[in-house]
Amino acid sequence: MTSPLAQIAPVPPLAGYTVAVTASRRRREFGAALERQGAAVVYAPAVRIIPLSDDALLREATLHCLARGVDIVVATTGIGLRGWIEAAEGWGIGEQLLDTIGRAELIARGPKVRGAVRVAGLTEAWAPESESTIEVLSHLGQRSLHGKKIAVQLHGEPLAWFLDALRSQGAEVIEVPVYRSVLPEDRAPLTRLIGTIAARGVDAVAFTSAAATANLLKVAQTMQFSEVITALSTDVLAACVGPVTAAPLTAHGITVAQPERFRLGALVKTIVDELPKWRGRSIVSADRAIEIRGQAVVVDGKLLPVGGTGIALLRRLADEPGRVVPREELLNALPGGGTDPHAVEVAIGRLRASLNDPRIVETVVKRGYRLCS
To answer: 152 near 162, Cβ under 8 Å?
Structure first.
């Protein structure tokens, strides 16, 4: 006969954690992948993609490529390459553009772009497996670029460093802005997220573009900038798809978790691996194995929801297992602080009820509380 313990399903790795998703494109796909790992997901788009099919800058760049020809074309995203070709077709110069790109050395920034290249009937000269712009730059830097005309299909993120590096090697760079990233029209979810980050109401924030990272910080500057920077530096994990996306955060000294491969699946795995290290805490009290998570506690393999106040008290007690923590110190640990010592007694009572074992947190009369050793 199977024991009751053997019948308990394992707790998903992100159960009890809340992750904020700042992406706009593919956000539901990304969020669903996090939810399959047990996370509660908060959606707060920090960016909006605007196609530039009618933009004068895109038309001007396209005509420039057709009139003078190009030696090298760097395609950075599949959607961007398709958008460029579709815009040219709308202007009646689609075939000319395909012919111009086809005669150039076509660099595709990774497998997904390579797929778009081939669907368009083109053939790439080279593509890194990493989808890394840095690797593209390294590849181009292996030969002289002096006098070369290089068209770079931009993808809504700051690429000034990449363009400047090409120009410093003597290349003539044609910027092709297929779409651009701006703040969302409805900023309410983003402003709510900023307040939630400052209050430590989420455990991680995931970024999939540098524009989203920069936009969140830009809006935070009008609200609770220092609190957000402190939260992301200490309690809230910042997870980015790659170094370009992470750059606005690292510029403020924030440690960022990022995968080796710049893909959503790899970012999900990074969050699964890093968030428990960042926010999780394992202790033993009253002979019970306890794992403190962001918004819940796992006791002997069973997930138990615990409110933010209870989690805050449990974390403070776990900082010094076995030590009696005075009520005054626990009062300071409550979210938002407090002045009424009775609030600690009420919160401890609720915490004990949530843990289903009153022995875990002991009362030491006239002194305070401690975790049972």
So the answer is: yes
Cβ neighbours, 10 Å, residue 328:
10
Asked if domains 5-47+184-279 and 50-181 share a fold, the reply is yes
Instruction: Show contacts of 110-113: CB within 8 Å, 24+ apart.
Output: 110/262, 112/77, 112/78, 113/75, 113/76, 113/77, 113/78, 113/81
Residue 169, Cβ neighbours under 10 Å: how many?
16
Structure tokens at 38: 């047990």
Sign for the pseudo-dihedral over CA of 159, 162, 168, 169 = negative
Rounded-to-10 torsion of CA 249, 251, 255, 258: 60
Q: How far apart are the first and last CA of the chain?
A: 34
pLDDT digits (tens, 9 = 90+) for 38-50: 999 999 999 988 7
CATH architecture of 5-47+184-279: 3-Layer(aba) Sandwich (3.40)
Q: Is residue 61 predicted with pLDDT exceeding 60?
A: yes
Query: Distance (Å, rounded) from C-alpha 210 to C-alpha 212?
Result: 5
**DSSP assignment letter at 322:** T
* pLDDT score, position 157: 63
User: What is the Cα Rg of the chain in Å?
Assistant: 26
Q: Side chain identity at 202, as an amino acid letter?
A: V
What sign results for the dihedral spanned by CA atoms 217, 221, 226, 228?
negative
Rounded CA gap, 309 and 286, in Å?
Answer: 21
- Is-contact 256 240, C-beta < 8 A? yes
Strand partners, 271: none
Half-sphere exposure (Cβ direction) of 264: Cα atoms closer than 13 Å? 16
The residue type found at 166 is: L
For the domain spanning 50-181, the CATH number is 3.40.50.10090
Could you give phi then psi for residue 199, rounded to 5 degrees?
-90, 5
Q: What is the pLDDT, as a whole number, of residue 53?
A: 55
Class of domain 281-371: mainly alpha
